[in-house]
Amino acid sequence: MSKDKVNNSIFYVLFEGLKIYFSNIDKFLLYMLFPVFGQVIGLVLSLVIPFALVQTITDKVENPAMALVYLILLAVPGLLIFTKAFWNYLVAYVALNSMTEGALTSGKVYDFQSHNEVATRRSFSFILLLLVVGALSSVGSTIFFIIPGFVIWIYLILVFQVFTFEPELNITEIFKRSFCLIKGNWFRTFLIMAFLTFFSIYIISQGFAVVLDFLNLTTLICNKLDEYTSLIPLDYVNEFLTYFNLQNITPTMISKVILSSSLTFLVMGLTLPIRSVCWTLWYVNLSQMKLSDNKKDKTKVSKSSRRKNINREE
User: Fold this and answer.
1) Alpha-carbon distance 98 to 272, whole Å?
2) What are phi and psi for residue 62, nearest 5 degrees?
3) Would you tell me how many other CB atoms lie within 10 Å of the CB of residue 66?
């Protein structure tokens, strides 16, 4: 197999991506700590503190409106932490691509701030890109567009890489560029996405779940969550489910869903670098392939023109 074919294979992208990630895993995990755990901590603080103090505040403050104001103010610090962490997480979609380029050229990942600036110094364009991606994702996830939406999303999966490495393009051109890169490589791109999703989310999530079960932490955490989920009024919902002969919802079931969802969210966040590294490598490979194809086409056109000119002269 030629070097060209190996470098442009999905196996090369996945192998090289995992190698870059695990050789810099300490730096990637350090970079993702606040964006991931900051969201969790901020959300917990904004919900738990007001919930814990709601009875105390309503007993001491006679005016319901003022009591609501106090509860909102208690939630503000947590919401600020969540907002900052969420923004950093979004910036990581671009910064990690820049880090991958640095790892390819120097073999090291460093200077997080300079990589963040790839997105922050173009904040307006970046926010506009996020809004368009969010709108397309919302439309594509509806029941009427879920299949064509999925197909189109594969074509647009490299928009963050294009935004990172081709800053001269506007938003419309970014989406067109991603579409052109994937065109003719849709199925291979789908295979990369399927592997990354299975490995970086499902396998690792299940691994953590097994560890929690082995240490008996799953039961311990769920029992702690039951103290809060048992306060949720489920009577009306269960009456509705009973009417249709469906299984009733219990606080323990909700606790298990919360634990499972939280674990999946943490794994998705912490393994974002794996996916970004692989997609950056795929972007680089597809760009080189398209550039090579364009050169070949120009060469063929040039040779064809020369032959025509020679025939005319004869």
Assistant:
1) 14
2) -75, -35
3) 11
If one counts every other C-beta atom within 10 angstroms of the C-beta of residue 279, the result is 24
- Chain Cα centroid distance, residue 196: 11
Task: Give the range with max mean pLDDT: 4-18, 180-194, 216-230.
Answer: 180-194
Burial class of 201 by CB neighbour count within 10 A (0 to 12, 13 to 18, 19+)? middle
Give the pTM: 0.83
Of 188-192, 239-243, 296-300, the one with minimum mean pLDDT is 296-300
Structure letter (DSSP) for residue 9: S
Where would I find the H helices in the chain?
3-7, 10-23, 25-60, 64-106, 112-120, 123-140, 146-155, 159-165, 171-182, 186-197, 204-214, 217-229, 235-243, 251-270, 272-313
Residue 6 CB partners (closer than 8 Å, separation 6+): 12
* Neighbour count for residue 194 (Cβ, 10 Å): 10
Q: Quick check: 98 and 118 in contact, CB under 8 A?
A: yes
